[in-house]
Design a protein that fits this description.
The protein is an alpha/beta fold. The protein has eleven helices and seven strands. The protein has a seven-stranded mixed sheet, with helices on both faces. β1, α8 and β2 form a beta-alpha-beta unit. α4 packs parallel to α7 and α7 packs parallel to α8.
């Protein structure tokens, strides 16, 4: 599919969904007036993140006082099946992230309520649900429709059917999904951000997620090196964060 065809299909997809018009307006501004917003402070933050970064294993041991080696052994079959599902998927989406970090954050907090932004194949959703099912907890996920790829049917593709009863999926942009989620429940045990990559989008969502995270809960954000939103948010709120280097990118995590 050419870039022009993809953009046209995406625009038509928006026009067919009046409930997504607010996000369409934000997209137009982001790609015209605010084009540099996605990279604001990137150089500063990558230097900062590199100076603080530890491995995923180190972070899990430091924050949650557990050894992460058992994760892949305990869930070997589930992870293998999920990997096979990803390979057979005809639509290309974001791959697996720091799954152990997500799982042990849920275990550490005895999570009953978890909220995440960004789903794609559903790898992060899978990691959270493997923990939540032990306590019959609920994962609330925000994910925009894949308007330009005909990929909606594949969102959460790697999540097994037996875990979906513990999952509520909201198919809007974060600015529409998160208020709906917070209206259903508040006082989340874990929040995980992996959606809008812009500086302004991150700052808005970080504030909302932090406000709805209980004391002692775990806050995580992927791809914090894209811009300085995460660093600026932590410094403004005097948060001592751990930075995890994972597959050439940085993940931010802290306990509130």
């Amino acid at each position: 599919m050419s870039e022009i065809t993809r953009v046209l299909k995406t625009f038509i997809g928006y026009l067919k969904r009046p409930d997504l018009y607010p996000e369409l307006g934000r997209k137009i501004l982001k790609n015209t007036i605010n084009r540099n917003n996605a990279f604001k402070g990137k150089e500063k933050t990558n230097s900062w993140a590199a100076s603080k970064a530890v491995s995923q294993e180190e972070a899990i041991h430091k924050l949650f006082e557990v050894n992460s080696e058992s994760f892949n052994h305990e869930f070997q079959d589930v992870l293998k099946q999920a990997g096979e599902k990803e390979k057979e998927c005809p639509i290309k989406m974001g791959g697996a992230g720091a799954l152990e970090l997500i799982y042990y954050a849920c275990e550490f907090s005895n999570a009953q309520h978890v909220v995440e932004t960004g789903v794609a194949y559903g790898w992060s959703s899978l990691a959270a649900l493997l923990s939540l099912r032990k306590r019959n907890g609920t994962l609330y996920s925000s994910d925009m429709p894949y308007l330009g790829q005909n990929g909606d049917q594949y969102v959460g593709y790697v999540v097994p059917e037996n875990l979906k009863s513990n999952w509520k999926l909201f198919r809007f942009a974060d600015k529409e999904s998160l208020p709906k989620i917070f209206a259903e429940t508040s006082g989340f045990d874990v929040v995980h951000y992996d959606s809008d990559k812009s500086y302004d989008g991150r700052i808005w969502a970080y504030q909302e997620l932090y406000r709805n995270l209980r004391k002692g809960g775990v806050f995580m954000s992927d791809d914090i090196g894209d811009n300085s939103a995460y660093q600026d948010f932590c410094e403004k709120n005097e948060i001592n964060t751990t930075v995890v280097e994972f597959e050439g990118k940085y993940v931010g995590v802290f306990i509130k």
